[in-house]
Amino acid sequence: MRQDRASPRKSNPLPGFGITLGFAVLYLSVLVLIPIAVLSLKALSLSGPELWRLATNARALAAYRLSLGASFAAALLNAAFGSLLAWVLVRYRFPGRRLLDGLVDFPFALPTAVAGLTLASLFSANGWLGRFLVPIGIQGQSSRLGVVLALTFVGLPFSVRTLQPLLENLDKAVEEAAAILGAGRLRTFWSVIAPTLLPAVLTGFGLAFARGLGEYGSIVFISGNLPFRTEIAPTLVVMRLESGGFDYTGAIGVALVLLVFSFALLLTLNWLQGWSAKFQRP
Amino acid sequence: MNPPRTTAAPERPAHSSTQEPPLVKWLLIGVAGLFAALFLLLPLANVFGQAFSAGRAAYWQTLSEKDTVAAIRLTLLVAAISVPLNVLFGVAASWAIAKFDFRGKAVLLTFIDLPFSVSPVVAGLMFVLLCGANGLLGDWLKAHGVTIIFAVPGIVLATMFVTFPFVARELIPIMEDQGREQEEAALTLGASGWQTFWHVSLPSVKWGLFYGVILCNARAMGEYGAVSVVSSKIAGKTDTLPLRVEKLYNDFSHPAAPFAVATLLALLALVTLGVKTYLEWKSRREQEPL
């Protein structure tokens, strides 16, 4: 091998491994790992029953339920409309396609506070959409629907951008073969194309879901933050932190549950991405 | 359209076997377009529409208020500290991960992704628990006269946490694709390690690096959740632009005011998207002649 000729003693002659890895690990530890460890230790230093009470009281349970439910609904909406957008962007040529493609990243680039602000105003009683929706009973502001809408906005790029590269690399010969064998277009889509896309759709769903669980900025403006009704788990962390006096314990229980959720999701997503990579390269 | 039957027609089906009928195609485009218009374009237009709803004079007055100017300055300062540090980390981490093989690489990659999945609010809480008055380092910091939480250093730390993965995530796949043959050639020809990095490795990833910086910067300037937990939210002192938006929103006296400040952040998003589109176009053009 060429490497061996260049440097017979070491297989890799490139310099800087020790210092770059050392710096990266140090930086990662100080900024990410130690803070996570501190939160976990603080939580575990509480007595078992107290931690259980803080993490699972009725208000917290209602907040988890809303966070999970709304994130699930938003991720589902995104899986549907995101897949449609990805399909249209990859398969069709039409005026405005470039603009639409660029616009998909907009929720990713727009600060969440601004997203929450503008969505809240759109759906308020005299907003551009609310003035039509509120009279027919659709309340976007201070409602659970509002939470779902904001999370859908925030999560949209994830489902589109995970599916798009896969669609671009899809082998058209398979579809042609299906057509030659007599399958109609719809049948080809459901039996040939859809199964190939499924892992990527699931990955996009998982990414949007994970993003939704942790989301705070876009929600506080639109949801009204009513305990037991429209209060999501991250908002509850902030509420407890602001009212909890000095020991922060009120916030820690809920934060620990959120942290466990995000770890579980991260591992699931890693596994899903490995699975969909296998699909991409048979 | 009904084309007259010709002899060539029977050889070709009405439309290719791997395409949808035109009606279906345009229906799908229509639904996707409508969804994007309602969900993406309308919120953007609304920011500017509401911002100017009280007239142009009120708009400029909000933007030139002392506290708004201070918020702009703080936002720029926070980005100016956190982005370069994350670039340094991103370059170092991607160099080690993409150019070398070592045990634990997969674990390291997962750790780098962590800040993406941790709720920004939880991230803020972590720094409060670490550096706050009753935190782990609270007494030590107090003895040395250092205030981190509810002050600017805390805002910087929280911002660094949430923007941590952007540059590394962008650079690692590109550097992995490049392999290390070019660097090995440069070293064989007598270049020093530093020269090799500076003249060979860096130029070949420059667009990816730039893109990572742009994304990192957009998030750094726009972060709200993590920053709102660690900031004391004192106008003119510890308010960043997103916190200023929130404050103006909760002060109901001028409904257009939060939107005026929000236009700055919306413009930041638009510039970010513009640069991204330009970079994609540019890197595609650079790849083609090869």
Can you walk me through this structure?
The complex is a heterodimer of chains A (282) and B (290). Chain A has helices spanning 2-6, 17-45, 48-56, 58-91, 97-103, 106-109, 112-123, 130-133, 144-168, 172-180, 185-214, 217-223, 233-243, 249-280. Chain A has 282 residues and is an all-alpha fold. In chain A, helix 3 (48-56) crosses helix 14 (249-280), helix 10 (172-180) runs antiparallel to helix 11 (185-214) and helix 13 packs antiparallel against helix 14. At the A-B interface, helix 1, helix 2, helix 4, helix 5 and helix 6 of A face helix 1, helix 3, helix 4, helix 5 and helix 7 of B.
Q: How is the secondary structure organized here?
A:
The complex is a heterodimer of chains A (282) and B (290).
Chain A: H1 2-6, H2 17-45, H3 48-56, H4 58-91, H5 97-103, H6 106-109, H7 112-123, H8 130-133, H9 144-168, H10 172-180, H11 185-214, H12 217-223, H13 233-243, H14 249-280
Helix pairs in contact in A: 2-14, 3-14, 4-9, 4-11, 7-9, 7-12, 9-11, 9-12, 10-11, 11-14, 13-14
Chain B: H1 22-51, H2 56-64, H3 66-99, H4 105-117, H5 120-131, H6 138-143, H7 152-163, H8 165-178, H9 181-188, H10 193-204, H11 206-222, H12 225-230, H13 241-250, H14 257-287
Global Rg of chain A: 24 Å
Helical proportion of chain A, percent range: over 70%
Strand content of chain A: under 5%
Give Rg of chain B in angstroms. 25 Å
> Roughly how many Å apart are the termini of chain B?
44 Å
User: Which shape of chain A, going by the Cα principal axes?
Assistant: globular
- In CATH terms, what is the fold-level topology of the largest domain in chain A? MetI-like fold
| Oligomer kind | heterodimer
Measured between the Cα atoms of the first and last residue of chain A, the distance is 27 Å
Which structural category fits the helices and strands of chain B? Answer: mainly alpha
CATH architecture of the largest domain in chain A: Orthogonal Bundle
Number of DSSP strand runs of chain B: 0
Helix content of chain B: over 70%
Annotated CATH architecture of chain B: Orthogonal Bundle
Helix count from the secondary structure assignment of chain B:
14
